[in-house]
Give the backbone structure.
Amino acid sequence: MAWIILVVAGILEVVWAFFLKQSAGFTRFVPTAITVVAMIASVILLSISMRSLPLGTAYTIWTGIGALGAFLVGIMVLGEPANAMRVTAAGLIIAGLVLMKVSTPT
């Protein structure tokens, strides 16, 4: 269950990152409100997952999901470039996440 909670926390990190961009420096109310709520929920879920997952694993997976998710949203929704170097970097993040997951005993 901790892994599911951690994945949801990571997805919420992507949500808040996207709406942070949409908030235009916290000048737009609705995107700002979504950002704050998603941030709080993400951190709460991260802390719950850390009850049974190691700190290093939980935090790495959480930030990795956020980084990869923000990368994909940037490409698919915001029209950011998907050049070979950026895609390779994303692949390396995925490799690191897989290694972290398989090396964690819980």
